[in-house]
Amino acid sequence: MNETASPTELEAWLRRLEAAHPVDIDLGLERVAEVAQRMGLFDGPVAERIISVAGTNGKGSTVAMLESLASQHGLSTATYTSPHLLRYNERLHLNGQEADDATLMDAFRAVEAARLAGEPVSLTYFEVGTLAALHAIRNLSPQLAILEVGLGGRLDAVNVVDADVAVVTTIALDHAAFLGDDLASIGREKAGIMRSGRPAVLGSRSLPASVREAADSLPAPVFALDEAYGLEQEAATWHWWRRAGERITHLPDPGLPLDNAATALAALALAGITLSPEACRAAMANVRLPGRMQWDGAWCLDVGHNPQAATYVATRLAERRVAGKTYALIGMLGDKDADGVIEALSPVIDAWVPASLEGSRARSADDLAACLLRHGQEVVARAASPTAGAHWLEGRLEPEDRVLVCGSFFTVAEVLAARENPAQTGRDDTSIEGMT
pTM, whole model, 2 decimals? Predict the structure, then answer.
């Protein structure tokens, strides 16, 4: 980042941040901690309570349900998540509302001033965004801050602050180049958000032993799903229990994974909040999370991009059968396990439209088509972009058909934007190769 005049528009700031650091991902806390120190982020608490959420899958839904629960209990809240779908502002919620441009730009200026206050410190896009979010959250001083950890844990920028409650949702193989190529290594990295003497909530029944070992070594008290808390399903509702004696019955299905819902309830209780059954029911009934099993008519959009997430999507689609065909419009990055995702989804997909994504990490439609054909799947078209694929499908769906848009945040974001503003997409059928 050079020392030219500060941009006045949010998009100008974001373009500048994207080009500021030589690599997109540069794990480590030294640079972030130095700038945080200069900003005074260590001078006092960022919020009255902080819950940090790490994991391979389930972080976004857990954060969304925590935010909804806290709001229904009358708490002032701030949440920080990543990545965003349509607007950068989605990453920071203050009392349930997206941060406005002015708040974000003020925070970016604060980070920039601290970054240059002494020997200049180079920061990644995510690191600047995280420090800016923490600055804005500290200015609000909410009763509860809920922070979604990025791709890691121990060395992730979010981990520069201490969580009062640490949550680990799930562990699966993802980001192996940064976190390790086995579940034990990834588990240790994710568990790095835990702190000595503070609750560690384990939100999966199949976490590697390394997660609990990391908690025990601190030591941090462990509260695990099916041990310290859990859930029971009954028809259209479910019940939550905690070993401490609490029980909340007849909770509505939030449309998100129930394990994550139960984990959110446990984390909020361990943060010192007395749970109200009425508030919990209202929170589950009203929570919304764009891009996670998001239905728009016959279109389902889900950002899941690894086999574990795809398995959950397949389970939910299997519960909601249709008389017609189920098409999958899929676009993925090159460093993701396309074969594993396809294998997980194939039992519920009748035909596929692979789409190319843009950028250095992108995977082409031809490459995805080759993966699909290896798995014996029917490829009905190849699209130069998710938008082109969506346009092609719109003109061919029968009334009883449906479409799953999946494989990447980029795929879902592009299709969401196209469906929200169809006149601005410039879509045409010349970027589609039909299959015979």
Answer: 0.90
Q: List b or e across 137-169, with b for residues whose CB sees 16 or more CB atoms inside 10 angstroms.
A: bbebebbbbbbbbbbbbbbbbbbbbbbbbbbbb
Lookup: tokens for 79: 């949440």
- Please tell me the predicted confidence (pLDDT) of residue 426: 43
The CA-atom distances, in angstroms, between 120 and each of 82, 111, 376 are: 26, 11, 54
Calculate the alpha carbon distances from 306 to 254, 284, 319, 326 in Å: 22, 26, 20, 20
Q: Residues 115-129: pLDDT tens digits?
A: 999 999 999 999 999
* Pairing between β-strand 144-148 and β-strand 77-80 as defined by DSSP bridges: parallel
Closest CA to 175 of 67, 40, 305, 310: 305
Beta bridge partners of 202: 168, 224
Nearest of 42, 79, 78, 70 to residue 272 by alpha carbon: 70
Q: Token pair of 42, please?
A: 């260590």
Q: Give the separation between CA 315 and CA 99, rounded to whole angstroms.
A: 35
**Which pLDDT band holds residue 397 (cuts at 50, 70, 90)?**
very high
Segment 147-184, tens digit of pLDDT: 999 978 999 999 999 999 999 999 987 645 555 578 99
Return d(Cα 393, Cα 395) in angstroms, integer.
Answer: 5
What does the alpha-carbon distance between residue 276 and residue 68 come to, in Å, rounded to a whole number? 13
Q: Are 411 and 337 in contact (CB under 8 A)?
A: no
Tokens of 78: 């701030």
End-to-end CA, the chain: 50
pLDDT tens digits, 211-229: 999 999 999 999 999 999 9
